[in-house]
Amino acid sequence: MRQSRLFTKTRREAPKDEVSKNAQLLIRAGYVHKEMAGVYSYLPLGLRTLAKIEAIIREEMDAIGGQEVRMATLHPSEPWKQTGAWDSVDVLFKLQSRTEKEYALGQSEEEIVTPIAAQYVQSYKDLPVAIYQIGQKYRDELRAKSGIMRGREFGMKDMYSFHETQQDFDRFYAAVKKAYFKIYERCGLVAKATEASGGAFSEKISYEFMVLTDAGEDDIVYCSSCDYCSNVEVAKEGEGELCPRCGKDHLKKAKAVEAGNVFDLGQKYPKAFNFTYKAEDGTDKHPIVGCYGIGTSRLMGTVVEVFADEKGIVWPASIAPFTVHLVELSGGNEDVKKEADELYSDLTAHGIEVLYDDRDVRAGEKFADSDLLGLPLRVVVSEKTLAAGKFECSHRAGGKTEFLSAAELLEHLRPPYA
Ligand code: ATP
Ligand code: MG
Fold this sequence. Notes:
Blueprint: H1 21-28, E1 32-36, E2 39-42, H2 44-63, E3 67-68, E4 74-76, H3 77-83, H4 85-88, E5 94-96, E6 102-105, H5 110-120, E7 129-138, E8 153-163, H6 166-186, E9 191-197, E10 205-212, E11 218-222, E12 229-231, E13 252-266, H7 268-272, E14 277-278, E15 284-285, E16 288-295, H8 296-307, E17 324-329, H9 334-349, E18 354-357, H10 363-373, E19 377-382, H11 383-388, E20 391-395, E21 401-404, H12 406-412
The structure holds adenosine-5'-triphosphate and magnesium ion.
The site of adenosine-5'-triphosphate has 16 residues, from strand 8, strand 13, strand 16 and helix 8.
């Protein structure tokens, strides 16, 4: 895409009331637009990154047998009243129509997915089934100071699975945990899984997937020698104590953000909706249910927090809005301009995603914007590179610079570029 055509521009200042680093940078770079505390619109660059995160999640959910749907977000109040959540879930946004009919905005969708599954699952032969969606959620959060990491409207992937036996549930639960680690890794992040009781949802074991960052709102203790990790709220062992799992190391304390979680919901929702299926032995049984969430916008904010430096955002290649930031410094030199235009055509013809800074602005401004936008590889075309016959290519992460011909550059960018 030609940057001269991009309707968003970078800006020097973020809104005064924006205290989080992720939102400050994303707003300054023109990725998102703040509507109010906890509510953001996604602009072309921001949407590209969000869509890439969603695509990674979709691939991994499909790979374990998830079936994608798009459920309503404007909900009737009846199912929420049926489970008691209408009164017990404090973050539920409730609306009233002109005729005083009551509605809820989706904050999680057990109340919607369970009746859908009940409609189609009649026999044990219809199980297991895993239904997921990627879309907007609404929560009346009291504190919304973490930018896109804690929204009142935010993106989430939520999946719900239904099983005949605890054994089959456990098999799928393990597959989801594995898929989650893969998703975080593909987004450039390292996540740790904490074991916790299911809180409001159930007494069963749940896992929270934590990413270490000072911008997180949770405190965890973890072991450097094994995968032990626990939320300080519930941990029996504290900082400095020996790891209860491997006994080799002393626990460290850190701030972290919950980037996802998985819950064993047992039979709570099928019971609430009287959802039974015909078991192999002819009896009517309630399926066992699991639910699995990942905050997509939170994940995007987390990546910004973890990798950004004093100059701006640093995207991992897998979720960058574009792979290459092609910057022409022609200063009116037509030969340089032509060379840059040709490289742009060449790279895009090879399927490489390029943001082409073809604007007529000073070099210093182009570099500052480029650093702020945070694309993985900057390729500069100037009189100097034209004379040398090689392009100046620098990596946003780490800052390494090398001079490459067009052929070498294409070789370098062969997928999977990372
Ligand atoms: P938290 O403790 O941070 O409020 P939660 O336990 O309420 O999270 P869930 O209800 O399990 O979270 O939602 C699933 C996932 O959705 C979370 O793991 C998180 O990644 C994301 N998420 C939850 N609340 C928000 C929010 N307000 N803004 C952005 N993402 C969120
Ligand atoms: Mg919450």
